[in-house]
Amino acid sequence: MLRNVSHFMVMSLAPGYARTESFCKAAADNATSQEITYLHLDELQASAVVQEVCQDLGVVSIPRDLARFLIQRSSGIPYYCEELLRCLRCNDMLLFRTRRRGGKAEDNWESLITSAAEASALAATSSSGAGNDGRVCIVRPDVNLENTMLPATLKEIALAQLDQIKPLKRMLLKFAAVIGPVFTTQLLSHILPTGFRHKMNCLLD
């Protein structure tokens, strides 16, 4: 395509899945081409996630529990973070209030995150002539973020990836998912069917 089509193309790829192995090999074979530039995209750092959320919401700070929820659930992937945030907003789980600098806070603002995102947001507010008011975001008191369902868009991505995994690996993943995101191999082995345990280490590798 590079030889025959005069177009600029940007392609993204999540490695590690069977459906992409042949594509990865083809891309690697062309690694020496001067027409191809490779960029490895790392996950967003926690501070960058908070900054992006503050920017998207138009606020100067967010609560620690909201920041922790978005950082852990998104794994630093911007699209995942955006979808999680959109889900929270669409379901009215977030509240927005105005905080006046130097004034008495209406709520316990000590629990709010103070970060580089807040500093940059305050600078932007000052430069725009908005005065001394700064919007902050809080989670509704009756909302438990740990019980929040995964948005349909992200659930479809997870299911599509799960369908691409070979049956034995898929079975192992489902047993591991019962335990949680972090588990010991000893605990996983304990809940696996007896005839399946001897294959565990190989499948985990």
TrEMBL record:
Keywords: ATP-binding, Nucleotide-binding. PANTHER family: GUANYLATE CYCLASE DOMAIN-CONTAINING PROTEIN, TESTICULAR SOLUBLE ADENYLYL CYCLASE. It comes from Nipponia nippon. GO terms for cellular component: cytoplasm. This is Adenylate cyclase type 10. GO terms for molecular function: adenylate cyclase activity; ATP binding. It comes from the Eukaryota.
